[in-house]
Fold this protein.
Amino acid sequence: MPWWLMQRTEMKRRRLGKRINVLLKDMIRQQYAKHKTHGLRHDQSRSILSLSLQDTDTLSRELVDETCDQIKMFLLAGHDTTSITLGWIFHWLSRTPRTAIAVRSELDNLLGHEADPEVVRARLMSSDGPDLVRRMSYISAVVKETLRLHPPAATARYTKHGTGFTVRTPAGEKHCLDGMITHNCEGLIQRDPAIYGDSAHYFKPERWLNDDNSNIPASAWRPFERGPRSCIGQEFAMIEIRVVIAVIVRRFDFVKVGLGELAFDAKNRPILGEGGIYAAKSLLYSVSRESLGCKLGHFESEPHTDDGPYRRDRLMPDQ
């Protein structure tokens, strides 16, 4: 809706936006003054703000505005993406017992068997913290596989008239996209059986640890998109997700309720299905019409054929 039909909402947004700007700009100036007074180097502080100010001789108004915009992007723009990814990770930990065991085993080896959040936090904040996060290889594979199956964001590009931008289909047909908006559907690109084989629709973190990983082109995994306009916060998001997993995964068991909840046998035991994944009572699918039209579900149990690269004739069942 245009802003003039919801003026109260628009005024509230602007008022809150100004408050956030005042708070952040105040923090930027304080941090800059601390750097100037104490002569902090970039290796003494790992915060985004400290790193952005490390080579700054003069704190101009333009630099304050730009830094404020970047911090808001890190604080706000990535919040929903990160939380969605964590939700899917917890879902797959509840359905894939081997994955949950492997994640907890890796954390035990890296951080010790004490799972208290304060103890874990102290380890991660120590001088060894960055190295410990980098060594979470299996957890990184879990995150990468979750983002492959459930990319939480998308991108589009506009092609100007007269550029002659043309694409070629696998069948050899050419299409000129001048004046069109092109959408990269990661939900299909990242499930291409030609790249990921028979397990393209299965949750399999091990694919990112095996030698087969070398056969996966970089362009076949793009939840943060690629090129000069790729997500500025992708490394930050990956670190953030790994830290959250390290803090809570060993303290909780995760259980899906509602759509996609586990199926049990007569002895009330979960039923282990194909791919080492627990069977579910019902399909788990997106309720968004746009997502259904583009991604068409999340999982399928058997090889699947379709009539083209952008078509799915049926929903993919969730097992």
Observations:
- The beta strands are 155-158, 166-168, 174-176, 181-184.
- Residues 17-77 form one domain.
- The CA atoms of residues 296 and 314 lie 8 Å apart.
- Residues 289-319 have pLDDT under 50 and may be disordered.
